[in-house]
UniProtKB/TrEMBL annotation:
It comes from the Bacteria. InterPro entries: Amidohydrolase, Bact_exopeptidase_dim_dom, Peptidase_M20, Peptidase_M20_dimer. Residues 194-284 form the Peptidase M20 dimerisation domain. CDD domains: M20_Acy1. Keywords: Hydrolase. This is Amidohydrolase.
Length: 397
């Protein structure tokens, strides 16, 4: 495989400028979740230029197959997401977003262009490997129910069924040329909480005449943290946060109701389900005990993301061959969420992070900020590494 490694590195370098151009085009024309019509048309066009036969899926998604020799032997699936965020870009660059208030601030333009670059490399090598590569360009990662879940419902993991699924995500905390990886539980499930507490409003100077929902809501916020401190296993990461509280009274006005929004995240599906019941009983019981009422809506989001240990060990070993062991970093668990988790729940999967910061410290803005951008070198590393990992996985018996 050493000759293939050298060839892939050479092809990644040869095509790097074209991959950068693809990314800059995607960056200039971002589209929101499940509205990626022009993006998927562009991706489809690029795949056809490579000689592939892309097929639509999940409305604004696309899937294509690269068949090597003996295509029925083994299949590896590669995933990239395509949607942007409702953020107004502040970067002054030639490829700045042309869609006001919409920006590729999470690097999905990098993911898509990297997968197109990997597809180009693999097409040039298709006579030198056995098996099939399934390219999955996914809509709607940033918005529930998550495009990954819709693609799975429409059969993206069948016909042919992949033995493994690989995905990568930008990571500005690491410099270009490095990746981060972690076996096992890596990212959290995410559920949205919408809570309304109802009492009886009135004049703030006469609390005895009212039933103060602000006080009830405050008790619920404090008591709900007992789920983390006293009901959750201390060895299991759990986060409960309320980020929006609207009472909408005044200095001397107690409102009739208080509205709250929050998030619940963890790394275990059984505890996740159990915690939902605890939280509902706590909110309703505490409100009732204080004479108020409440309504709690829990919108179930993405599951937790699990990197299959054996696959992840193989990915790490292959990445060390490609990048050098010093450039493959062990990551901590992260309580953010990703809908790649659906793939990880349905198949052996590995989701790793692609360094995008410059070595001099530039391009260090976090994802989901209006100044996010990347070091272009990452667009040589990303496609080449993904192609190399794919060939390594296709060779597993």
């Amino acid at each position: 495989m050493q000759h293939l490694l050298s060839r892939i590195k050479a092809l990644a370098a040869e095509h790097a400028a074209d991959t950068v151009a693809l990314r800059q085009h995607l960056h200039a024309y971002p589209e929101l979740s499940f509205e990626e019509h022009n993006t998927v048309a562009f991706v489809t066009e690029q795949l056809r230029k490579l000689g592939l036969k892309p097929q639509p899926i999940a409305n604004t998604g696309v899937v294509a197959l690269i068949e090597g020799r003996n295509p029925g032997t083994r299949t590896v699936a590669l995933r990239a997401d395509m949607d942007a965020l409702p953020i107004a870009e502040q970067n002054e660059v030639p490829y700045k977003s042309t869609n006001p208030g919409v920006m590729h601030a999470c690097g999905h333009d990098v993911h898509t262009s990297s997968l197109l670059g990997a597809a180009r490399i693999l097409m040039e090598l298709k006579d030198e490997f056995e098996g099939t590569v399934k390219l999955m360009f996914q809509p709607g990662e940033e918005k529930l129910p998550g495009g990954a879940s819709l693609m799975i419902q429409e059969g993206v993991l069948e016909n042919p069924k992949p033995a493994s699924v690989l995905g990568q995500h930008v990571f500005p905390m690491l410099p270009a040329g490095q990746i981060g990886i972690r076996p096992g539980r890596y990212m959290a499930s995410t559920d949205e909480l919408y809570l309304t507490v109802r009492g009886k409003g009135g004049h703030g100077a006469m609390p005895e005449m009212n039933l103060d929902p602000v006080l009830v809501a405050a008790h619920i916020i404090v008591a709900a943290q007992q789920l983390v401190s006293r009901r959750a296993n201390p060895k299991l990461p759990t986060v409960l946060s309320f980020g929006k509280v609207i009472a909408n009274g005044a200095t001397n006005v107690i409102p009739n109701e208080v509205y709250l929004e929050g998030t619940f995240r963890t790394l275990n599906e059984e505890w996740r389900n159990e915690a939902h019941g605890h939280l509902r009983r706590l909110c309703e019981g505490l409100a009732d005990a204080m004479g108020a009422t409440c309504e709690l809506e829990i919108r179930r989001g993405y599951p937790y993301l699990e990197n299959e240990p054996k696959l992840t060990a193989r990915v790490r070993s292959a990445a060390e061959q490609y990048l050098g062991a010093e450039n493959v970093i062990e990551l901590d668990q992260w309580m953010a969420a990703e809908d790649f988790a659906y793939f990880s729940q349905a198949a052996d999967a590995c989701f790793y992070r692609l360094g995008t910061r410059a070595h001099d410290g530039r391009f260090a803005s976090s994802v989901h900020t209006p100044t996010f951008d990347i070091e272009p070198q990452a667009l040589e590393t990303g496609p080449g590494l993904m192609a190399w990992l794919t060939l390594q996985e296709l060779a597993v018996h």
